[in-house]
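Quick one, tokens below. Sequence please?
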């Protein structure tokens, strides 16, 4: 198990990205790093912005662990939580709910605890089928297609 704790400052997202790439490197799963990173960064951003209300005196804790056939990450903020059941119905085509939509689409399992202040993202590493991989690639392409290109 590996743990990273960051202060709730959006500028600390780079530490999470480095954490993901180090984990993927260690476990030789670099071909999953983009999918894991995108999903985990959405969870951490939600924890910072919505969970901890950008309060830099609060922390976000990210835990990585692995089991046979996969890896998982949990992200915990210091907020009160939220009604994740109603938010999970969002289709991701608006700014509200897009992060949850991406987390749900890119992970193999998304679950919440602590009234929504903890999210767990599971990724099956062994045995991913081609259709699931294509679905994830399409989700990422659609996500970036919706963003304006900065010049």
């Amino acid at each position: 198990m590996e743990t990273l704790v960051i202060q709730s400052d959006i500028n600390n997202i780079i530490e999470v990205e480095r954490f993901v790439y180090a984990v993927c490197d260690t476990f030789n799963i670099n071909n999953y790093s983009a999918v894991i990173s995108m999903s985990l960064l959405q969870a951490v951003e939600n924890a910072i912005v919505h969970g901890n209300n950008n309060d830099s005196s609060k922390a976000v804790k990210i835990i990585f662990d692995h089991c046979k056939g996969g890896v998982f990450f949990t992200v915990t903020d210091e907020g009160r939580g939220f009604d994740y059941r109603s938010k999970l119905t969002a289709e991701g085509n608006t700014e509200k709910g897009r992060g949850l939509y991406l987390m749900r689409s890119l992970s193999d399992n998304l679950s919440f605890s602590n009234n929504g202040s903890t999210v767990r993202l599971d990724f099956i590493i062994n045995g991913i089928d081609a259709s699931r991989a294509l679905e994830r690639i399409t989700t990422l392409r659609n996500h970036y297609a919706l963003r304006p290109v900065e010049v």
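The chain is about 40% helix and 25% strand. The chain has one domain: 2-146.
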